[in-house]
Fold this sequence. Notes:
It is globular, with a radius of gyration of 24 Å. The protein has two domains: about 150 residues, no CATH class; about 160 residues, Orthogonal Bundle (hpI Integrase, Chain A), CATH 1.10.443. The protein contains 15 helices and eight strands. About 50% of the residues lie in helices and about 10% in strands. Strand 2 and strand 3 form a beta hairpin. The strands form three sheets. The chain has a three-stranded antiparallel beta sheet with strand order 1-2-3, with helices on one face. A three-stranded antiparallel beta sheet has the order 6-7-8. By secondary structure, the chain is mainly alpha-helical. The N and C termini lie far apart (about 75 Å).
Amino acid sequence: MARVQLPYIQTFRDRFGKVRYYFRRTGFERVALPGKPGSAEFLAAYYAASGVGPKDPKSRRLSLAPTGSISALLCDYYQSAEFQRLKLVTQTTYRRALDGFAALELSGTTVGKLPVARLERRHILQLLDRYADKPGASEVLMKRLRTVLTFAVDRGWIASNPATRIRSHRKSEGFTPWSEEDVDQFAAHWPEGSKARLALALLLYTGQRRSDVVGMGRPHLRGDLLQVVQQKTKARLAIPVHPALKLELDRLPPDQLTFLLTEHGKPFSVAGFGNWFGERAREAGLTGRTAHGLRKAAARRLAEAGCSAHEIMAITGHQTLAEAERYTRSANQITLARSAIRAIT
């Protein structure tokens, strides 16, 4: 039997011994996939099935949307090659934000029923005010709206993008970076050899996202290097194993392939790991500290050690210099400030 690597594939042998394949995802229609895995017809059917919306009433209404409406635009966007190229998890995230926007009420009707051509900047600002207490959701929504309305301009739905240069309500810098005091407090609470301590080491000494850390295991070790293919960017990294991380890895049973396992002996889901690690941080007396905050701490440590932006990128996998330079600028400010004070004392 051929090994299928794509997600949401169900395989079984029928009573004649023939292997059959289906696209099967919770909440979605089950779709038969013809041909052999990897063939043109198989992939065409797979990507077509993955683009079909969930069976919930809200998404079904998109296909019945009035011509020229915002919901009709979303339906067109979801069926586009631009949207289909996105990973399934990304598609789900985009849909959640955009379908939620379409379901909002404005002037006695839902946004989805309004004509795209009549959507103005003032309407978006009015709707954005409803997210004043949710800056994160506000930022996500604006990113998705800019994308879909740029698509609308390119496809001739509208002449200009009304979401251009509208700022979200987000004022924070996102996830709070861990300080050295935070790291020490966590390490003091969770002893060496504990699962929490291993998680800390993996996050802090690889600088990776939680989506990458949950999949790390012995098959990714090549000598003193940890091979990583980032889930979000597909960047391929080879990260030297830090001595502190090696000590934790050496304590694992030699037959344990995945480094981090749940209490049931299964690999963590991304969300499950994030929740679990947040609980361990709170038990250590740390509030508002997340797994992603340790990724920021790792980058900060590298910058404060004098690493260049390119060196930081080689570890964290940041895609642009601007992202990495945020950390080097902060570190340089501290170094220069200390030098300035020493000069006048």
